[in-house]
Design the sequence.
């Protein structure tokens, strides 16, 4: 019962290759069907996100080196030259494959360390494969374990905490001042890509009202429509700054607000707290305004520093996450060993009983002086003896996890005690 | 029996403090609710410990420093629990429960004053004492919240955020919690003072029996009322209101120490 993983990710493949080897749901279903139809894998799951494409599978017992077959299949399926693809692909087996998946689910293998999205993507991929009946007992157990690892790492470590982008750091800082943004108003100056990112964050955090102001009203209109905001005419600063709690400025090459202007705005606002996020380069808001009463001003550099602090804090959580992963890898391997060992013991019992019958039948044929009843009694005695010899180890294997852990290689036991015909 | 409640109280408060700290330090959400549960259990055990202590004097403990300190700690914990449930915010818990535990330990480590128990004064007097101490507990809570406001604001302005800032309550919430706490304090001190006058009237046949404690209590009431009304005005909202609240608590401490010990002749420990 081997687990095989063949895949590529943002560390091993450039974006051009990742794009070509990505799977839609329909492609994932088709690939899983073909892999099983070709007899390469018995259970299959395709995990495809923008940063990775991975095929997890359980090959039939008889097939060795199944990863090579899956690699060839991937190059054919996506029409990518095998030589090109080979350089980007990684192959993992059993414990390494399990550990890899658990790290992926925990966000340790993500481009943005600890990001939360990947856990949802793993959940979706598993749900889809399960619905398609492409998974079996092994992959079901493996992916349920991965989801548990992801949840535990998220709740027991700080790996996913604290914002990691300038836009999210700014919005989270605003929440440090105002609390939930559901009753707050924000004004976004400028309609470039940075403004768009902040608008998305503000919308995700449930901001009550959004205003967009831009020199080109068309672009402002498009953004306002996309994010459910309202366009404000460019230039009416004092009026525009009266109501919002959060102001995001990202206007190119233009100084928008100086300290004196902001001072009069604050006086008109009755000193209600104002959170200013200056993401413009050069800066849009006079840095001296930061010391105004109830004004909280953060520029791009401040926010980048905070993101850097957060990145270091996340990195310091890696050992905790790794220890959770190791605990679950151990659990999974122990379960896997128990299933394999139980199978092995069953096969051994049936072989021993078969051997007993053949052996006794041959010997009893030469012992004519024994009555039929005696012969049957002898059969029973030998049968009981062999059962007794096997039943204790079988019960121990079922009960003792530590013993199962010690038996590292069930395959070696099978080779040693079973004939080819008994293995299946 | 008293020892059982004493130990139970210490164990529950300590567990609550550890869980609040774990939440503050590492964001352990699992422990978050347990911290509140342990605080509630601690308050129940503390209540029975207080009951045992009061049994001899047949009234609320007010005549010895340790008794009134213990009552103060209990009311502080209770006020905080109400605010926590109302505002659904647990990050302040570590600071308040630490204070409650310290007050409880201080009130129990030393033996009670060797004063003869005073005669029981009836429910009006007991309510006067309890409400006054509740007011001081609520003011102490608003003091801690205001200190937290100033510290967090300082951290936000310095841009050195560290780990804890992301789990502290938002400034706006700290301000609201502080106002709620002051409102509880104002209501209790107002009713408590009126009850005090009613009791003086019964005892001496007239409302006015001069004690400098009256003046400072009325000053405290006035200052907190001013804080409550100006803390949302343009000139005061934000850090200035928090500083005002801290100043008011300094006057409360003054009332507790200098006035009680050296000037007042009818208020000793509340």
Sequence:
């Amino acid at each position: 019962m081997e687990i095989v993983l063949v895949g590529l990710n943002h560390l091993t493949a450039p974006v051009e290759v990742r794009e070509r080897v990505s799977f839609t749901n329909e492609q994932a279903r088709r690939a899983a069907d073909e892999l099983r139809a070709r007899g390469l894998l018995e259970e299959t799951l395709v995990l495809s996100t923008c940063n990775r494409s991975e095929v997890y599978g359980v090959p039939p017992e008889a097939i060795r080196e199944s990863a090579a077959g899956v690699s060839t299949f991937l190059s054919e399926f996506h029409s990518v030259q095998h030589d090109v693809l080979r350089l980007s692909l990684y192959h993992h087996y059993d414990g390494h494959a399990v550990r890899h998946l658990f790290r992926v689910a925990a966000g340790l293998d993500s481009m943005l360390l600890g990001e939360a999205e990947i856990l949802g993507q793993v959940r979706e991929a598993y749900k889809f494969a399960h619905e398609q009946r492409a998974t079996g007992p092994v992959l079901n157990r493996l992916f349920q374990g991965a989801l548990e690892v992801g949840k535990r790492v998220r709740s027991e470590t700080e790996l996913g905490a604290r914002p990691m982008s300038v836009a999210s750091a700014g919005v989270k800082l605003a929440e440090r001042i105002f609390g939930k943004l559901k009753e707050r108003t924000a004004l976004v100056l400028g309609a470039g890509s940075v403004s768009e990112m902040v608008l998305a964050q503000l919308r995700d955090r449930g901001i009550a009202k959004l205003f967009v102001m831009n020199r080109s009203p068309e672009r402002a209109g498009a953004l306002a429509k996309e994010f459910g905001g309202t366009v404000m005419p460019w230039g009416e600063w004092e009026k525009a700054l009266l109501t919002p709690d959060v102001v995001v400025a990202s206007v190119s090459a233009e100084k928008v607000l100086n300290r004196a202007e902001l001072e009069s705005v604050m006086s008109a606002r009755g000193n209600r707290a104002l959170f200013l996020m200056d993401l413009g380069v050069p800066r849009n808001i006079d840095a001296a305004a930061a010391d105004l009463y109830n004004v909280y001003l953060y520029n791009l550099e401040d926010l980048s520093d905070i993101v850097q602090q957060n990145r270091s804090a996340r990195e310091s959580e890696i050992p905790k996450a790794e220890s959770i992963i190791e605990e679950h890898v151990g659990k999974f391997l122990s379960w896997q060993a128990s299933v394999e060992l139980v199978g092995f013991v069953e096969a051994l019992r049936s072989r021993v009983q078969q051997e007993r019958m053949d052996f006794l039948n041959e010997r009893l044929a030469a012992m004519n002086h024994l009555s039929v009843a005696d012969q049957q009694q002898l059969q029973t005695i030998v049968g009981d003896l062999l059962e007794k010899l096997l039943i204790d180890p079988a019960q121990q294997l079922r009960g003792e996890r530590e013993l199962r852990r010690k038996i590292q290689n069930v395959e070696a036991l099978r080779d040693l005690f079973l004939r080819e015909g008994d293995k299946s | 029996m008293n020892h059982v409640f004493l130990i139970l109280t210490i164990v529950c408060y300590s567990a609550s403090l550890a869980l609040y700290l774990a939440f503050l330090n590492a964001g352990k959400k699992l422990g978050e609710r347990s911290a509140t549960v342990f605080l509630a259990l601690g308050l129940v055990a503390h209540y029975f410990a207080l009951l045992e202590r009061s049994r001899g004097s047949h009234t609320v403990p007010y005549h010895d420093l340790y008794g009134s300190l213990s009552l103060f700690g209990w009311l502080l914990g209770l006020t905080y629990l109400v605010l926590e449930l109302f505002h659904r915010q647990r990050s302040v818990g570590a600071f308040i429960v630490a204070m409650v535990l310290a007050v409880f330990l201080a009130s129990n480590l030393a033996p009670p004053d060797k004063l003869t128990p005073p005669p029981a004064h009836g429910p009006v007097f007991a309510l006067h004492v309890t409400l006054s101490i509740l007011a001081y507990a609520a003011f102490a809570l608003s003091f801690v919240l205001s200190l937290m406001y100033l510290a967090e604001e300082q951290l936000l302005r310095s841009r050195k955020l560290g780990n804890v800032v992301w789990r502290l309550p938002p400034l706006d919430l700290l301000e609201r919690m502080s106002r709620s706490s002051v409102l509880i304090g104002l209501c209790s001190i107002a009713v408590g003072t009126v009850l005090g006058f009613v009791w003086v009237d019964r005892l001496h046949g007239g409302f006015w029996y001069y004690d400098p404690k009256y003046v400072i209590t009325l000053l405290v009431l006035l200052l907190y009322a001013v804080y409550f009304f100006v803390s949302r005005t343009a000139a005061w909202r934000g850090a200035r209101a928090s500083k005002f609240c801290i100043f008011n608590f300094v006057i409360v401490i003054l009332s507790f120490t200098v006035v009680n010990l050296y000037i007042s002749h009818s208020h000793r420990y509340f």
